[in-house]
Amino acid sequence: MSAARGEAEPGDRSRRQFAVCDGRRVQTRSGAEVVVDGDVVYKLHRPGTDLRALTTRLRIAAESDCLLSPLDIRPEPAGPRWRSRWPRVETVVPQPECAPWADAGRLLARLHGESTTMRMPHGWPQRLRRMVRATTDDTVRRAAAELPPEAWRAGSPHRPATLVHGDWHLGQLGRVADSWMLIDVDDLGVGDPAWDLARPAGFWAAGLIPDDDWQTFLDAYREAGGAAVPAQGDPWSVLDPFARAAVVQAAAHHPDDDLLHAACARML
Protein backbone atom coordinates (compact mmCIF):
# COMPACT_ATOMS: atom_id res chain seq x y z
CA MET A 1 0.00 0.00 0.00
CA SER A 2 1.37 3.37 -0.91
CA ALA A 3 1.01 6.88 0.39
CA ALA A 4 0.01 8.32 -2.96
CA ARG A 5 -0.06 12.07 -3.45
CA GLY A 6 -0.51 14.48 -6.31
CA GLU A 7 -1.85 14.11 -9.84
CA ALA A 8 -0.22 12.50 -12.85
CA GLU A 9 0.11 14.49 -16.04
CA PRO A 10 -2.87 13.70 -18.32
CA GLY A 11 -0.74 12.61 -21.26
CA ASP A 12 1.40 10.37 -19.10
CA ARG A 13 -1.28 8.97 -16.80
CA SER A 14 -1.42 5.39 -18.08
CA ARG A 15 2.34 4.88 -17.91
CA ARG A 16 2.67 6.34 -14.43
CA GLN A 17 -0.47 4.87 -12.90
CA PHE A 18 -0.85 1.40 -14.36
CA ALA A 19 1.31 -1.53 -15.37
CA VAL A 20 1.02 -4.48 -17.74
CA CYS A 21 3.97 -6.79 -17.25
CA ASP A 22 4.28 -8.95 -20.35
CA GLY A 23 6.47 -12.04 -20.27
CA ARG A 24 7.35 -11.68 -16.60
CA ARG A 25 7.30 -14.31 -13.86
CA VAL A 26 6.31 -12.77 -10.53
CA GLN A 27 6.45 -14.48 -7.13
CA THR A 28 3.65 -13.26 -4.87
CA ARG A 29 3.81 -12.76 -1.12
CA SER A 30 1.63 -15.85 -0.58
CA GLY A 31 3.92 -18.21 -2.51
CA ALA A 32 1.98 -18.19 -5.77
CA GLU A 33 3.64 -17.51 -9.14
CA VAL A 34 2.18 -15.35 -11.89
CA VAL A 35 3.29 -15.48 -15.52
CA VAL A 36 2.00 -13.06 -18.17
CA ASP A 37 1.94 -14.45 -21.71
CA GLY A 38 0.37 -12.10 -24.24
CA ASP A 39 -3.24 -11.52 -23.21
CA VAL A 40 -3.31 -14.41 -20.74
CA VAL A 41 -2.14 -14.48 -17.13
CA TYR A 42 -1.27 -17.88 -15.67
CA LYS A 43 -1.39 -18.16 -11.90
CA LEU A 44 0.29 -21.08 -10.19
CA HIS A 45 -1.39 -21.10 -6.80
CA ARG A 46 0.53 -21.48 -3.56
CA PRO A 47 1.46 -24.98 -2.42
CA GLY A 48 -1.29 -26.68 -0.44
CA THR A 49 -4.14 -24.89 -2.22
CA ASP A 50 -7.33 -26.91 -1.88
CA LEU A 51 -8.84 -27.79 -5.28
CA ARG A 52 -12.45 -27.62 -4.12
CA ALA A 53 -11.95 -24.24 -2.44
CA LEU A 54 -10.13 -22.81 -5.48
CA THR A 55 -12.82 -24.07 -7.85
CA THR A 56 -15.51 -22.45 -5.69
CA ARG A 57 -13.64 -19.15 -5.69
CA LEU A 58 -13.20 -19.21 -9.47
CA ARG A 59 -16.92 -19.90 -9.92
CA ILE A 60 -17.87 -17.02 -7.62
CA ALA A 61 -15.51 -14.70 -9.54
CA ALA A 62 -17.13 -15.73 -12.82
CA GLU A 63 -20.56 -14.83 -11.43
CA SER A 64 -19.59 -11.55 -9.76
CA ASP A 65 -19.92 -8.04 -11.16
CA CYS A 66 -16.97 -6.86 -9.05
CA LEU A 67 -14.39 -9.62 -9.55
CA LEU A 68 -12.34 -10.27 -12.66
CA SER A 69 -13.71 -13.37 -14.34
CA PRO A 70 -11.27 -16.24 -14.99
CA LEU A 71 -10.89 -17.68 -18.48
CA ASP A 72 -11.77 -21.10 -17.09
CA ILE A 73 -13.42 -22.01 -13.80
CA ARG A 74 -11.66 -25.38 -13.74
CA PRO A 75 -8.08 -25.20 -12.44
CA GLU A 76 -5.54 -27.36 -14.25
CA PRO A 77 -2.92 -29.50 -12.50
CA ALA A 78 0.70 -28.31 -12.67
CA GLY A 79 2.73 -30.93 -10.87
CA PRO A 80 1.60 -30.97 -7.23
CA ARG A 81 -0.03 -27.54 -7.57
CA TRP A 82 -2.98 -25.98 -9.38
CA ARG A 83 -2.98 -23.32 -12.09
CA SER A 84 -5.70 -20.92 -13.24
CA ARG A 85 -5.96 -18.68 -16.33
CA TRP A 86 -7.02 -15.04 -16.38
CA PRO A 87 -7.32 -12.20 -18.89
CA ARG A 88 -4.48 -9.68 -18.70
CA VAL A 89 -5.46 -6.33 -17.20
CA GLU A 90 -3.72 -3.14 -16.17
CA THR A 91 -3.00 -2.88 -12.47
CA VAL A 92 -2.08 -0.01 -10.17
CA VAL A 93 1.69 0.35 -10.01
CA PRO A 94 3.56 0.69 -6.69
CA GLN A 95 3.66 4.32 -5.52
CA PRO A 96 1.18 5.72 -8.07
CA GLU A 97 1.11 9.47 -8.39
CA CYS A 98 -2.68 9.54 -8.11
CA ALA A 99 -4.25 6.47 -6.53
CA PRO A 100 -7.93 5.63 -7.30
CA TRP A 101 -9.05 5.67 -3.69
CA ALA A 102 -12.64 6.73 -4.36
CA ASP A 103 -13.10 4.07 -7.05
CA ALA A 104 -11.65 1.48 -4.67
CA GLY A 105 -14.07 2.42 -1.91
CA ARG A 106 -17.08 2.21 -4.19
CA LEU A 107 -15.94 -1.12 -5.65
CA LEU A 108 -15.50 -2.71 -2.22
CA ALA A 109 -18.92 -1.44 -1.15
CA ARG A 110 -20.42 -3.12 -4.21
CA LEU A 111 -18.63 -6.38 -3.45
CA HIS A 112 -19.91 -6.31 0.12
CA GLY A 113 -23.43 -5.86 -1.21
CA GLU A 114 -23.39 -8.81 -3.60
CA SER A 115 -25.56 -11.80 -2.74
CA THR A 116 -23.72 -15.10 -2.56
CA THR A 117 -24.33 -18.75 -1.72
CA MET A 118 -20.71 -19.09 -0.62
CA ARG A 119 -20.15 -20.39 2.91
CA MET A 120 -16.36 -20.67 2.94
CA PRO A 121 -14.64 -18.13 5.25
CA HIS A 122 -12.18 -15.65 3.76
CA GLY A 123 -8.47 -16.15 4.30
CA TRP A 124 -7.35 -13.10 6.30
CA PRO A 125 -6.97 -14.79 9.71
CA GLN A 126 -5.07 -17.72 8.22
CA ARG A 127 -2.66 -15.39 6.44
CA LEU A 128 -2.14 -13.46 9.67
CA ARG A 129 -1.30 -16.68 11.50
CA ARG A 130 1.19 -17.71 8.82
CA MET A 131 3.03 -14.38 9.02
CA VAL A 132 3.12 -14.34 12.82
CA ARG A 133 4.46 -17.90 12.94
CA ALA A 134 7.21 -16.96 10.50
CA THR A 135 8.42 -13.77 12.21
CA THR A 136 11.29 -13.68 14.69
CA ASP A 137 10.64 -10.08 15.76
CA ASP A 138 9.74 -9.97 19.44
CA THR A 139 7.82 -6.69 19.18
CA VAL A 140 5.64 -8.03 16.37
CA ARG A 141 5.01 -11.26 18.27
CA ARG A 142 4.01 -9.34 21.41
CA ALA A 143 1.68 -7.08 19.39
CA ALA A 144 0.12 -10.18 17.82
CA ALA A 145 -0.40 -11.74 21.25
CA GLU A 146 -2.37 -8.67 22.35
CA LEU A 147 -4.69 -8.59 19.33
CA PRO A 148 -8.39 -8.86 20.26
CA PRO A 149 -10.40 -12.01 19.41
CA GLU A 150 -11.91 -10.42 16.28
CA ALA A 151 -8.46 -10.46 14.68
CA TRP A 152 -8.33 -14.25 14.65
CA ARG A 153 -11.67 -15.09 13.10
CA ALA A 154 -13.28 -14.36 9.74
CA GLY A 155 -16.51 -13.01 11.21
CA SER A 156 -18.55 -12.52 14.37
CA PRO A 157 -22.24 -13.21 15.12
CA HIS A 158 -22.95 -9.55 15.96
CA ARG A 159 -21.39 -8.26 12.72
CA PRO A 160 -22.49 -8.29 9.05
CA ALA A 161 -21.45 -11.32 6.99
CA THR A 162 -20.75 -10.53 3.34
CA LEU A 163 -18.53 -11.59 0.49
CA VAL A 164 -15.00 -10.48 1.42
CA HIS A 165 -11.99 -10.17 -0.90
CA GLY A 166 -9.69 -11.24 1.90
CA ASP A 167 -6.45 -9.60 0.77
CA TRP A 168 -7.39 -6.14 -0.43
CA HIS A 169 -4.86 -3.43 -1.27
CA LEU A 170 -4.48 -1.08 -4.24
CA GLY A 171 -2.56 -3.69 -6.23
CA GLN A 172 -5.71 -5.82 -6.29
CA LEU A 173 -7.41 -3.41 -8.70
CA GLY A 174 -7.46 -4.35 -12.37
CA ARG A 175 -8.70 -1.97 -15.05
CA VAL A 176 -11.03 -3.45 -17.67
CA ALA A 177 -11.91 -0.84 -20.31
CA ASP A 178 -13.00 2.12 -18.15
CA SER A 179 -13.98 0.11 -15.10
CA TRP A 180 -12.14 -1.33 -12.13
CA MET A 181 -12.42 -4.97 -11.11
CA LEU A 182 -10.96 -6.86 -8.16
CA ILE A 183 -8.28 -9.42 -8.96
CA ASP A 184 -6.74 -12.31 -6.98
CA VAL A 185 -9.39 -14.56 -5.41
CA ASP A 186 -7.06 -16.79 -3.36
CA ASP A 187 -8.48 -15.51 -0.05
CA LEU A 188 -12.03 -14.77 -1.22
CA GLY A 189 -14.75 -15.89 1.16
CA VAL A 190 -17.48 -14.85 3.56
CA GLY A 191 -17.05 -12.94 6.80
CA ASP A 192 -16.87 -9.47 8.31
CA PRO A 193 -16.48 -6.88 5.52
CA ALA A 194 -14.35 -4.74 7.86
CA TRP A 195 -11.45 -7.03 6.97
CA ASP A 196 -11.31 -5.48 3.49
CA LEU A 197 -10.80 -2.07 5.09
CA ALA A 198 -8.17 -3.37 7.51
CA ARG A 199 -5.04 -2.62 5.52
CA PRO A 200 -5.87 0.98 4.45
CA ALA A 201 -7.16 1.72 7.95
CA GLY A 202 -4.08 0.29 9.64
CA PHE A 203 -1.66 1.89 7.22
CA TRP A 204 -3.34 5.25 7.67
CA ALA A 205 -3.03 4.91 11.44
CA ALA A 206 0.63 3.96 11.03
CA GLY A 207 1.33 7.07 8.93
CA LEU A 208 1.76 5.30 5.60
CA ILE A 209 -1.34 6.73 3.93
CA PRO A 210 -2.13 10.48 3.92
CA ASP A 211 -5.24 11.72 5.71
CA ASP A 212 -6.88 12.93 2.51
CA ASP A 213 -6.47 9.57 0.77
CA TRP A 214 -7.90 7.63 3.69
CA GLN A 215 -10.84 10.03 4.02
CA THR A 216 -11.55 9.87 0.29
CA PHE A 217 -11.59 6.07 0.42
CA LEU A 218 -13.78 5.94 3.54
CA ASP A 219 -16.25 8.57 2.29
CA ALA A 220 -16.67 6.82 -1.07
CA TYR A 221 -17.22 3.48 0.66
CA ARG A 222 -19.86 4.94 2.95
CA GLU A 223 -21.62 6.87 0.22
CA ALA A 224 -21.90 3.66 -1.81
CA GLY A 225 -23.63 1.93 1.10
CA GLY A 226 -20.71 -0.18 2.32
CA ALA A 227 -21.76 -2.59 5.08
CA ALA A 228 -18.50 -2.65 7.07
CA VAL A 229 -18.91 0.61 9.00
CA PRO A 230 -21.82 2.83 10.13
CA ALA A 231 -22.92 5.40 7.57
CA GLN A 232 -21.95 8.21 9.95
CA GLY A 233 -19.81 8.79 13.00
CA ASP A 234 -16.43 7.46 14.05
CA PRO A 235 -15.73 4.12 12.31
CA TRP A 236 -12.78 3.27 14.54
CA SER A 237 -14.75 1.29 17.12
CA VAL A 238 -15.39 -1.19 14.29
CA LEU A 239 -12.10 -0.96 12.42
CA ASP A 240 -9.59 -0.90 15.29
CA PRO A 241 -9.04 -4.69 15.76
CA PHE A 242 -8.78 -5.30 12.03
CA ALA A 243 -6.45 -2.34 11.46
CA ARG A 244 -4.18 -3.61 14.24
CA ALA A 245 -4.15 -7.08 12.69
CA ALA A 246 -3.22 -5.66 9.29
CA VAL A 247 -0.31 -3.69 10.76
CA VAL A 248 0.98 -6.75 12.63
CA GLN A 249 0.76 -8.88 9.49
CA ALA A 250 2.53 -6.26 7.39
CA ALA A 251 5.24 -5.71 10.00
CA ALA A 252 5.90 -9.46 10.10
CA HIS A 253 6.22 -9.48 6.31
CA HIS A 254 8.34 -6.29 6.12
CA PRO A 255 10.68 -6.49 9.14
CA ASP A 256 12.78 -3.52 7.97
CA ASP A 257 9.86 -1.07 7.77
CA ASP A 258 10.40 1.35 10.66
CA LEU A 259 6.91 2.86 10.55
CA LEU A 260 5.21 -0.54 10.78
CA HIS A 261 7.54 -1.65 13.55
CA ALA A 262 6.89 1.59 15.48
CA ALA A 263 3.14 1.08 15.07
CA CYS A 264 3.45 -2.40 16.61
CA ALA A 265 5.44 -0.94 19.49
CA ARG A 266 2.70 1.64 20.13
CA MET A 267 0.13 -1.15 20.40
CA LEU A 268 2.01 -2.42 23.46
For the structure shown, list the relevant keywords.
single chain; 268 residues; alpha+beta; Phosphorylase Kinase, domain 1; Aminoglycoside 3'-phosphotransferase, Chain: A, domain 2; 2 domains; 4-stranded antiparallel sheet; globular; disordered N terminus
Classify the secondary structure makeup into a structural class: alpha+beta
Overall pLDDT confidence: 90
Number of alpha- plus pi-helical segments: 9
- Taking Cα atoms only, what radius of gyration do you get, to the nearest Å? 18 Å
Please identify, by name, the CATH architecture of the largest domain. Answer: Alpha-Beta Complex
- Give the overall shape: globular
Strand order of the largest sheet: 2-3-4-6-5
β-sheet strand percentage: 15-25%
What is the total tally of β strands? 11
- Spans of 5+ residues with little confidence (pLDDT < 50)? 1-16
Q: Could you give the distance between the termini?
A: 24 Å
When the domains are counted, the total is 2
Largest sheet: 5 strands, antiparallel
Run of helices and strands: HEEEEHEEEHHHEEEEHHHH
Question: Quick one: CATH class of the largest domain?
Answer: Alpha Beta
CATH topology of the largest domain: Aminoglycoside 3'-phosphotransferase, Chain: A, domain 2
Specify the CATH homologous superfamily of the largest domain: Aminoglycoside phosphotransferase (APH), C-terminal lobe
Helix content: 25-40%
